[in-house]
Amino acid sequence: MRTEDCMSTPTATVADVAAMIDHTLLKPEATAADVAALVAEAVELGTYAVCVSPSMLPISVPEGLKIAVVCGFPSGKHTSAVKAAEAAEAVRHGADEIDMVIDIGAAKAGGFDLVQADIAAVRAAAPAPVVLKVIIESAALTDDEIVGVCRAAVAAGADFVKTSTGFHPSGGATVHAVELMHRTVADAGLFVKASGGVRTLEQARAMIAAGATRLGVSGSRALLSSEADGSAAGY
């Protein structure tokens, strides 16, 4: 069963949190060996998916572990045609999910029709059952802009809105942004992925309580052990 089909408990267990994680490796210097280690660690920790760069495909994963691949990453300043081609190629090479970055500048300029068209192009190139997550870089947007891009994602047929790439200087996920995104898309059946700066179980549980059903985390082992030892993981 997909984690987004389940209602989170008020205090998610470590296993609950693990099952919501996209275990992520997007560093430019990542190697095939690094990705193989990522997959092995994801299996050990019980995460929902691994999230990698498109150039790392194809990769081998055991049954039940999903493959998420970024698109238009990290700037979102690729043309829609390039994003669509990138998404289609990723799906051909085994991606189950696409995490695309919108054109943040279009959103800042109020061009939500352009944002919708951008998302729709990727949706057409990677139709269901591929899961489409839309990275909105929420820390760089006002509340009104967050609502606008979330509505564009709904209209374009996306499955998730996602807070952040984890690479933008404005920051990553906040409880406020997750709550606002959830309120905007939940009635339309979309879900929220919190990513960027989610480093501890306490932070993960706060995001889940705010409405997130998926988490983007690179330091998953440290996050999942942070309750016991106080350690923190980067994203």
UniProtKB/TrEMBL annotation:
An individual GO BP term: 2-deoxyribose 1-phosphate catabolic process
GO molecular function terms attached to this record: deoxyribose-phosphate aldolase activity
Intracellular or extracellular location(s): Cytoplasm
Main location: cytoplasm
Keyword Cytoplasm (UniProt): yes
Signal peptide location: none
SMART domains assigned: DeoC (SM01133)
Group of enzyme by EC: lyase
Active-site residues, Swiss-Prot/TrEMBL: D99 (proton donor/acceptor), K162 (schiff-base intermediate with acetaldehyde), K193 (proton donor/acceptor)
InterPro entries: Aldolase_TIM (IPR013785), DeoC (IPR011343), DeoC/FbaB/LacD_aldolase (IPR002915), DeoC_typeI (IPR028581)
Record-listed E.C. numbers: 4.1.2.4
GO cellular component terms given for this protein: cytoplasm
Reactions catalysed according to its record: 2-deoxy-D-ribose 5-phosphate = D-glyceraldehyde 3-phosphate + acetaldehyde
Coiled coil: none
Superkingdom of this protein's organism: Bacteria
Keywords: Cytoplasm, Lyase, Schiff base
SUPFAM superfamilies on file: Aldolase
The protein's annotated pathway: Carbohydrate degradation; 2-deoxy-D-ribose 1-phosphate degradation; D-glyceraldehyde 3-phosphate and acetaldehyde from 2-deoxy-alpha-D-ribose 1-phosphate: step 2/2
UniProt family annotation: Belongs to the DeoC/FbaB aldolase family. DeoC type 1 subfamily.
Role, per record: Catalyzes a reversible aldol reaction between acetaldehyde and D-glyceraldehyde 3-phosphate to generate 2-deoxy-D-ribose 5-phosphate.
Protein name as annotated: Deoxyribose-phosphate aldolase
Organism lineage: Bacteria, Bacillati, Actinomycetota, Actinomycetes, Mycobacteriales
